[in-house]
Design a protein that fits this description.
This protein has one helix at residues 10-18; strands at residues 2-4, 28-30, 33-38, 43-51, 57-68, 74-77, 91-93, 96-99, 104-112, 119-129, 132-134, 146-148, 151-160, 168-177, 189-197, 203-212, 218-221, 225-229, 233-240, 248-257, 264-272. With 285 residues, it is mainly β. The protein is flat.
Amino acid sequence: MKLLTRGYWVAAMLVALLSLAAPANAFSITPLDTEIDVLPGEGYSGTIQVSSGAGEVSGHIYISDWKRLPNGDRETNEPGILPRSCGKWLVLSPTQFELSAKENLEIRYSFNVPADATGSYWTYVMVESQPRPMPPQPGMKTGLMVSAKARFAFRLVVNVSKGRKIIGRINRVEVVPAPGDGQRDGGGLQAGFLFENTGNTFINARCYLEIRGFDGEVINQSGIHEFYAFPESEWWVRLPIDSGIPPGEYLVLGVVDYGGASRVAGETRFTVPELSSPETSGAGR
């Protein structure tokens, strides 16, 4: 098992890193994710489009299972190891490729859903290019070559329309100082709540914060934030608290609409101090 670095979306993270070394019309794939509704025993097939960009590129395609940890880190596993992996269902074609400049490729994936499957399953199809030479950049010594290796993750979520259980809860709420940008302190507060998907179905959730006085009056309400949660897993959602709230003691309420029978909420107390360095108190309940 290997621990990967923190990232909100692995594909977005890889694209951000690669953009420093590759031109805008470089190797890429579409789409980066898809969600499919199927029946037990049903077969399905789909495609991923690969573009070589401005130069020749070769590479390979494989399946990888990732488990997202509550803090955003990821663990990678062999296909089919995780209880709700559909990695072993998939058949890929092709698994190797060589493309000329400005050439496109269609990757086909197919699978059959087991007859006893219930709820949601997921995996990632990895499309990885081999290192290839790139022209020397301005300022480099004569003869020095640079190679670039790109890797993209296509996330596949399969929702089986049988025995679906959509259940969620908030296990903890906290208020902590907001992180800085690496050059200065955050200078504010942020609320975090630990949402647990206790069901067996992939959830696309919407949430918001309410700041209330102890008398129950709503002082401030945040905008809507969206996040996703895999079955039987926890995920920290963190949102900033409006810096315009005057000093005093308040309640923060995290509310999540996860598509179940009702919304869930959790709250904790916190203090906006007179001083510039915030102090927080309270434990979620």
